[in-house]
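not sure who needs this but someone in the group chat was asking about PI4KB/PIK1 accessory domain-containing protein from Triparma laevis f. longispina so here u go. i didnt clean anything up, its just raw.
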Amino acid sequence: MGTNQSSTSSLSAEYRESLLTSVFLDEDDGEGQGVTRSRRKAKAIDMEKMTMIIWSFREQPEMVSFISNFLAKYSGEKLVFDGIEFYLPQLAHMIIHLEVDWPSTTLEQFALVISQHSLHFALQFNWILVCALQDYQPETSGGEVNPTYNELFYTRCIKLLQNMER
């Protein structure tokens, strides 16, 4: 039993490693394709793949946590941060609309960490949250019942805005 569990753990580690390897993009430094890996100037992460992975594994908090922690670890690098910022609308949509019951809010924490690194990112994320808040509020600005009101999304947006202000 111990060997089977060990092979499962190593398979999981191998899978995660291959997943991470497949999302790294080599940025061309102008010297063509013959450049060796040690001489490459920049690495980027394929954020389209990362976003799809988060969406595909949205019901598995361990995987989403792993990807979020990985992205947060490399978010200080310009090419990685640019990719995260480019996919902010998709990430914000997942943060607001994921209807899973997780013990922790991994994606929310990830967005807050990135917001601490960049005022520009924080401002864009804030605008997205304010717009979503208006979409899901109980009443329209005219005092009528809002047909798109959603209590879960509304409270999630309020909580995120409060956390961002802190």
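also Helices lie at 2-23, 47-56, 61-74, 78-86, 88-97, 106-117, 119-136, 151-165. if thats useful
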